[in-house]
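Notes taken during the Thursday session

The instructor put the following on the board and asked us to keep it in front of us for the whole hour. The protein is histidine kinase. We were told not to look anything up and to reason only from what is written here. First, the residues (271 in total):
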Amino acid sequence: MNDEKEDLYRPPAGSMEQLIRENNNLKAENRQLNQKLIELEEDTQASLSAISHELRNSLTLLVGSVQLMEQDYPNVASTRYWSSIHSDLSHMQAFLQDLSSFKSLKALVPHCRLCDLTAFLRDVYHNCQTWFDGIHRRLILSCPKTHSILYADTAKLYQAITNLIKNGLEALGHEGTVSLCLREATEDETLLLGTETTVIEIKDTGVGLSAKQQEVIFQPFFTDKANGTGLGLPIARNIVESHGGKLCISSCPGKGSVFTILLPRLPNAVK
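Then, after some discussion, the predicted structure tokens were revealed:
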């Protein structure tokens, strides 16, 4: 009988007791929603793994069959659609590689160490130069003469920066430049991270992005490129955020884009 009375009892509207009860109800609902999100994320990851595994097996068979056909029938390589087959297979391999990277980044714990960021960016520049013809499309590096030290997972950071450079290259069309720049942080950028900040910029003179495109550019699988996977930019952002940093974009249609990587220099600021 007492339990029934407690269930029927409602505290006066606006009373402290009512506010406490509503707050507890909201907390309980929030816990339930978080649990559902966790379960949904686990189901999504399991589904992606299963799909990726099946696609990779099928792709391996296709690539093997194509190679055998080229060995047994050398003239097939000169047929009209053979280059398209190779291009499609390469695109599928790139997609599965990006999908694998994206899945693994969900639980990424960066293995950070002190690195010479200036030397590191020079290596990135030299390795990516082969993507540009150096005449119509160029990659430019801008670094201070003094060496800059950063606490980071260089393998993952390399992946993030090269993804952004590749994105810039794809935005150029037949000509233009992509700039890789290491510079000092502004006061606002330092305030944004709340700690001593390193800034890396990747700037292109390509087609640029509308405000609507910028809202969805980091969403997985979003792409407006014919051969894009829609995972390069989300992967880059996940890597930067796993370092306790931020990846920002500034763009204007017809005037190119600037991707700004903000990274904490100090080890205790990295997740």
